[in-house]
Amino acid sequence: MKKHLIASLVGAAIALSSPLVSAASPDFPHLETMGVGEIVAQPDTATVDVAVSLTRTSAQAAKKASDDAVATLLERLEKMGIARKDIESANLNLQPQYSYPKNSEPKLNGYRATRNVTVTVSDLSRLNRVLDGALADGLNRVNGISFSSSKEVELKEQARMAAIADAKAKAESLAKGFGESLAGVWEIRYMTSTPVRPTMMRMAEASNVAASYNDAEITIRDQVEVVYALGE
């Protein structure tokens, strides 16, 4: 898994003394820094959202056609070794389809049946086969593909450590530059963040599935604010 660390300089504030300190600010010389850590890694998991959406002259025919397509896909996925727990098939959505001729009553043209299937693919080498199989089995819409990592807890910890190191390095540099010394940490403010998961553009037509998804990356950031007391 490819990954790299990025330490982002967001800025820091030094306050030796000020009559305009807020109620939450310490009343002694202090220095505030913000540390940011970022991990960029290749994902190892994809969540595929596909659907079958078709129209037939009767509700029964529409339901049967959509159910058949989903059943065929589920059988194919099982043969590929994808566990049933990694597959979610939504309930049927069945709606009448009307046309509205001018100066005439609405005309019933048939019924549209739609079913969604969500597949979690933990082996990205299978992703293209899953997509091709879904399309071959009659699922004619790809709603999107999102990527994630099974190691997000570990990556989050790495991002947090990078953020802490970033905050400490900036505090030490600033204190040294102003001829001060750090007397210890007075306050830590931790800010949680959500991983940035790449998602392929929503695709209404199956023919657009050829878009590349091999270079996807997941970004995990963490951030911490630290208030240091300055020595005498």
Automatic annotation (TrEMBL):
The keyword Magnesium does not apply. Gene3D superfamilies: Protein of unknown function (DUF541), domain 1, Protein of unknown function (DUF541), domain 2. InterPro entries: 26kDa_periplasmic_antigen (IPR052022), SIMPL/DUF541 (IPR007497). GO terms for biological process: DNA damage response. Pfam families: SIMPL. Coiled coil: none annotated. Keywords: Signal. Residues 1-23 form the signal peptide. PANTHER family: PERIPLASMIC IMMUNOGENIC PROTEIN, SLR1258 PROTEIN. This is Oxidative stress defense protein. It comes from Grimontia sedimenti.
